[in-house]
Amino acid sequence: MVYLVNYDREGFYTISSSVLAWQFDLLKSIGRCRAYYKEIRPLLGNIEDERIKNYATHTCNKMFLSFIIDWCKIFGSENNKTHWKKLFKKHYTTDGTLICKEDAYINKVESVIFAECGMDLDGFKRAKKKMVKARNKFAAHVDIGEIPEMPYMDVPYGIAQAFCIFLSHIEGDNFETLDDLADMFEGEAMAFLRALNLEQ
Questions:
Q1: How far apart are the C-alpha atoms of 145 and 166, rounded to whole Å?
Q2: For residue 15, which of 28, 6, 29, 2 has the smallest C-alpha distance?
Q3: How confident is the model at residue 8 (pLDDT cuts 50, 70, 90)?
Q4: pLDDT tens readout for residues 88-121
Q5: Please, are residues 178 and 30 in contact by the beta-carbon 8 Å criterion?
Q6: Could you tell me which residues come within 8 angstroms of residue 34 by beta carbon, excluding any fewer than 6 positions away?
Q7: How far apart are CA 141 and CA 151, in angstroms?
Q8: Which of 54, 82, 92, 151 has its CA at 20 to 30 Å from residue 117's CA atom?
Q9: How many CA atoms lie within 13 A of 107 on its CB side?
Q10: 15 vs 168, residue with greater confidence
Q11: CA 118/CA 190 separation, integer angstroms
């Protein structure tokens, strides 16, 4: 299903509702993985029970790898059906006029990301390259004997948050960005840690 949305009165975009639903689930997973990782990771050195420490370490590692994989589903290869560019769908009026050109959509998303993250196109490409390399050589596949430099979460998270800000402009005030959901995600991790008596 395609529907028409207005972006801050700047223009209209034709959006795929099914792609949006998938993207939002992936964005929430990105936010959760980061929150869980950041809450659990600092506590690993304090866990005395080896079984719990192994479980927490494995969970933490999987959160980091899932963060990379899910991020790449939106911002990695353009062949992915959930890539951010796939949100745009060409749609025409009854007289055959194209409602919005794809370039206008791409330029708007990139301008929001660049403004929110304080980066340019080269910076965006560098972040993508580092994440895709980590995914291809370690997170989703393995090149034995070759472990790439692991990316920090902050820049990729900032890009995902910026895309959420773009979506919030077309979806309205009820659309929650990753920063809006951060307290809930951190609360989930803290509830888990409380259950194991591992709070800081």
A1: 40
A2: 2
A3: low
A4: 877 666 777 766 777 888 988 999 999 999 999 9
A5: yes
A6: 63, 67, 153, 157, 185
A7: 16
A8: 82
A9: 7
A10: 168
A11: 31
